[in-house]
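quick one before i forget lol
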Amino acid sequence: MAFSPDFTTHKQYTSIYTQKERFEQFVKKGGSVTLALFDHKTIIGFAVLDYPDDEDRWARMDQKDIMEIKAVEVLREFRKQGIARRLLYHLLSDPELEHKIIYLTAYSWTWDTVYSGLTIQSYRNMLMNLYADFGFMEYLTNEPNICLKSENVFMARIGEKVPQKIREEFKWLRFGICV
């Protein structure tokens, strides 16, 4: 398998991941990667679920309790075909995730609004609707990168089997308070 070279050719938009080795690193440390392939050999889309980076505030929680959707991306030519939705379906299908909080940060400066033709607000709404279909809700936070622009969004899906104590810890951590 190899990445399509089109992931790195756009001036206004660059993919965050363009090397298979990075995906292998996620999997080695317990994360998950789902790939969309063309002709069984060319990567045209991916979704990554991993533990928070050590420097992120969310890493203050126990790793067994929280994971982050690091990326969901589909090559421009293959968008609007439901691939992102299928990637998320497979990425989030593990029943063990019902014991975890899964969060995502959506920063407007990473969105490919040029190709989509959507306004920033429309792109935000599209993302929120996509993730809402998988049980994600928007949560308030004072995390500086989210607060930097009003269109940025923080969403999370709290698994059905997450204990109340962990839910409370997450609630306070969203505002930088450790309990």
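fyi The helical segments are 20-28, 83-91, 113-116, 120-132, 144-147, 164-173.
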